Amino acid sequence: MPRRIYPKPPIVEALMEFRFMSAVDARSLAEQLRDRLGERYDAPVTQFDLFQLQATAHAGGGMSTAATRQPDMFFLSSASGHRRIGCGSSVLTIHTLAPYPGWESFVEQAADAIAALPASVAEAQVGVLAIRYIDLIRLPLGEAIVDYIPIVPPCPAAMPPHITNYQYLTQTQDPDDGTTVQLMVAMAPSPTEEDHALWLDLALTKRVNGMSFLELAWLPEMEILHGRLRDIFETSITDAARELFQ
């Protein structure tokens, strides 16, 4: 399918994900990347914690609970907030937020971040690659949604025909290479009441057991995932929707 480049792409956020086959020190990784990329990621590092609740049943009856909190992800961010790097114990994520700079710029951002990895992480093996794009499409009020998005789920005949809100999740898997595709579509009235907000959240995941960060070994596989993602997006919209991105 020919590649389309839109003047006003609906992309709110795009991210690449690299899952390690063995754990790393997320805090140390974030600190080392900040030391090496501080000029581009000059906002304070933010930390997201994971909360876990454990319940214990006692032999004599009754139950007790205990909550634990531990660091889950550390994020480096540019001052504008348009670029981010996420560091977890088993994952590295590269984010670009609207306005979307284009695929080539996004790849360059990822390559720069990976080139700055400390040797202990750069030499680690990658087990899973993933790519995810979140799009926000604003649809005119009073027009049929199916004219813009042909994947609207059908309604029972007894329901009123005017759809004001819906959401659904579809997940499929390629039997040949194991790539998993997850598409979430959700619509809700816009806060301005001037249009409808339609969200498309599309993610592709592929196991690549033993892939290296070195010498851009990850890039050909990520290019393939991006191409498949783009094709799925284009077959999820109509020409009327494409006009909204001009």
Give the tally of β-strands.
9
Tally of alpha and pi helices? 5
H and E order: EHEEEEHHEEEEHH
Q: Largest sheet, if any?
A: 9 strands, antiparallel
Class per helix and strand makeup? alpha+beta
Helix content: 10-25%
Q: What is the total domain count?
A: 1
How would the global form be characterised?
globular
The fraction of residues assigned to DSSP E strands is 35-45%
Provide the low-confidence segments as ranges: none
Describe the structure.
- The protein has 246 residues and is an alpha+beta fold.
- It is 20% helix and 41% strand.
- It is globular, with a radius of gyration of 21 Å.
- Strands 2-3-4-5-1-6-9-8-7 form a 9-stranded antiparallel β-sheet.
- The model has no long low-confidence stretch (mean pLDDT 88).
- Strand 7 and strand 8 form a beta hairpin.
- It has one domain (11-50, 66-243).
- The relative contact order is 0.19.
What's the quick description here?
The chain is α+β, with helices and mostly antiparallel strands and 246 residues long.
Key descriptive features of the protein:
246 residues, alpha+beta, nine-stranded antiparallel beta sheet, 5 helices
Please render the helix and strand layout as text.
Blueprint: E1 11-20, H1 26-37, E2 46-57, E3 63-77, E4 83-88, E5 91-97, H2 103-115, H3 119-122, E6 125-140, E7 166-173, E8 180-189, E9 195-212, H4 219-234, H5 239-243
Antiparallel strand pairs: 1-5, 1-6, 2-3, 3-4, 4-5, 6-9, 7-8, 8-9
